[in-house]
Amino acid sequence: QVQFVESGGGLVQPGGSLSLSCATSRGIFIISTMAWYRQAPGKQRELVASITNSGTTNYADSTKGRFTISRDNAKNTVYLRMNSLQPDDTAVYSCNARNVRGDFWGQGTQVTVSS
Fold it and tell me: DSSP letter string over 40-107?
């Protein structure tokens, strides 16, 4: 069983910034590509950003240049720094770990961008 501790969601005004974090177990973290996905009401879940266990990153075109994904291997934690947030960024953001065992998901944290 894989558990995630996600934090950092909340309400922010357009143009503002927010940081998300997701911590999981050491045994899972060190073998996993970590990622953030999001799902807005009425839309399908989409990949926001991912980072491999060697540090290679990938971003959705809509977030490239505004969002930064990083991981701290000493803390078993993946982060997502979100800058220049827009109302279209409003969604439930979920942490994901992918490894040889499969895909594993956090419970999700709400991010709302509104004035």
Answer: -TTS--EEEEEE-TT--EEE-TTTBTTEEEEEETTTTEEEEEE-S--GGG-EEEEEEEEETTEEEE--
